[in-house]
Amino acid sequence: MRILVTGATGNVGRLVVDHLLAAGTAETAGTIEVRALTTNPAKAALPDGVEVVQGYLGRTETMPAALDGVDRMYLAPLPGTAREVLALAGKAGVDRVVALSGGQGSWWYGVQEAVNESGIDATHLEPGEFMLNSTMWAEQIRTTGVVRDAYPGSANAPIDLDDIAAVAATVLLEDGHLGRSYELTGPETISRAEMVRCIGAALGREIPFEELTHEQAVELLTPSMGEYARWYVDGMAELAAHPQQPTATVRELTGRPATTFAAWAVQHAGEFR
After folding, report:
1. Is residue 104 over pLDDT 70?
2. Is residue 121 domain-resident?
3. What is the pTM of this model?
């Protein structure tokens, strides 16, 4: 079985490669062949045992060679060319797609639409906010020791990227997941103020949370997020009124509990120090 991992040096794709390699070693006696799509194979530094091919979802002329002989594909979220890539995948004989996508109203809904229209059997992974997004506070913490943000009581169930990758590898390899959409979250609902406290505990010091107004937060985030800054802050306001509840999907599919934010903060403390 040959599996193509697109975006193989991205935040999630790189971890999907690792989980597939581990499964190939531990469970299937080498019957899994992992092909990794990357824009720069020389700098990718992917592990031994991976077939590295040059290409990019956004340059569809590179995709036929990457898809040749592929049975299954992990599809990274790039809505702009998803339909073209999936048409090429269908022609190449790909019979299963696991897509990192999102429901209606999300940034990645275009991927879900394209997959559903392609006719290829597929599974959708719909993650909530990434724990990694909390690194937006890293520069503030390093330089001022304080987090300035809005809605300290805004609460959701953020997820570790490695848990998303573990689920992706599982549904690529196992039967019984086609036609399904899985909402993926961390194991707990946690407020933004509690997240800052967890980061402080990982660093061994208290980090004050200085609350901003809605408009101040939009202004603060606009340089890095552009037009999505207001959408993001509006979402924080919604989660202050209606906190996201966690799902048990990661544990149910992988057999291991999802990572808590406190554990993630300890693992990533160096990014805030």
Report:
1. yes
2. yes
3. 0.94
